Every structure is written in structure tokens, then in C-alpha cells.
Amino acid sequence: MEIINNERKPQATISGSYGYGWQQMKKHFLYFLLILLIVGIAESPASMAKESNLDNSIYMVFLQIFSAAYALLLLPVITYGGSLLYLRGIRNEEIDFSELFVGFREKYVHIVLANLLKFAIVGIGFVFLIVPGIILLCRLAFVSLLVMDKDLDPVAAVEKSWQMTRGHGWRIFGMGLLAIPVFIAGMICFIVGAFVAVMWISAAFTALYHAIDLEDQKKMLENAL
Question: Which of 20, 177, 180, 212 could join 207 in a cystine, given CB atoms 3.0 to 4.6 angstroms apart?
Fold first, then answer.
């Protein structure tokens, strides 16, 4: 890992992503914590509907319909906005919390359709066999960031994520596996540790996107010269 001026530089490796993610998380800790809390609150209505004890009553049916509509039409806008704010922090850019809801004004259709397309592709992979589903999940890991960062439409975001993650699939899978003990360790350190673990994991995956994006930009510049 290259360290200059006591700061890590973005590198598209597991250790590089978690190391750079940790560095940026510490630097923007309160911002990342607020992002986590807002997104967590936004996810709570869907969770409450799943955990309801109303069985098959009319209220349960209504809650299930509401939960599905909320998860498809509203929640992705906030989670995609959260991904964008994490990227701002990873890049040391200004974190403007109004961007958390920018999707409702500017990219709503792209966000909803991109989320639906990714869900359908990965879901089909898991229906047929678990392994294809995992592969697709890894290769489409950057869809939300590409929609928000590059302003791509759903199909272009899926295609670009597939291109960006070529050669990085095992690395993304390894990062996902590493996230399990990281989260368990956070849980052992009480609830506060779990918050830190989730922020670190999110920052690490965002750092990997940032590192690969920088590599792609460098290649494009070299090809242009």
C-alpha cells in the first residue's frame, strides 16, 4: 500500500479499499454517521412491514403492498443519494446533504429503473443457481454510483458496471466476505461498533469504485495522447 504524507492513496485492492475507506471514514466520521442514520431511518418502514404480526388480515395485505411500493419507488432514491454522499467523502469533496434527495428532482426515473433492472438481473441469477446470482451481484456492484456519479441511464449503468468490474469480481467477492467478520466484530463492540462497521464497509466499497474509476480515467488519458 502506497502511503504519501501519512495518507493512503486509492488502490483497487481489498486491503487498499478497506484501508482508504477507513482513512476517509475517520476524516468524515460525523458526516458518514449522519448518512447512515438517515438511510437507516428511511429503510425502517419496509422493515416494520416485514416484521408485522398481523398475519393475513387486511391490514397486513395493505402493509405488504405499501412496503413493496415504498421499496421500489421511494427507498432507492435515498439509498442512491447516500451512495453519492459516501463518494463525495471518499473523494474529499464537499458533502451537501441536499444531494441525499436530489434523485426526487433530477434522476428519479433512472434511479427507480436502474434499481429494478439490477434487482431483476441478480434475482434471475439466484433463481437458477446461487453462484450466477453472486457473480451478477458482484459485477453490478457499481450501478448506483454510476447512475448518481456519471448520470448514466439504467442500461448504460449496468453495462458500465459490468465493464468496470471486469477482472475485479473475485476482489469484490472477497470484500463482501471480509465484511462479515468486520460486522461481527462491530457487534461484539456493542451497537456503536456496528455503526462503525457498516460505515467502514460502505466506505470501502465506495473506495474501490473510486480507485477503478481513477484507473479508467488514466487509461483514457493515455489512449488519447
Answer: 20
* Alpha carbon 200 to chain centroid, angstroms: 12
Rounded to whole angstroms, the Cα distance separating 115 from 140 reads 10
Helix (H, G, I), strand (E, B) or coil at 106: coil
Indicate the DSSP class of residue 13.
S
161 CA to centre of own chain:
13
Cβ neighbour number for residue 166 with a 10 Å cutoff = 10
Q: For residues 130 and 140, give the distance between their C-alpha atoms in angstroms, rounded to a whole number.
A: 16
CA 78 to chain centre: 11
- Cα 106 versus chain centre, distance: 19
Alpha-carbon gap, residue 141 to 118, rounded angstroms: 9
* Residue extents of the structural domains in the chain: 17-224
Which of the four pLDDT bands, split at 50, 70 and 90, describes residue 52? Answer: low
Residue 6: its pLDDT value, please?
67
Cβ-Cβ contacts under 8 Å for 170 (sequence gap 6 or more): none
What pTM did the predictor assign?
0.90
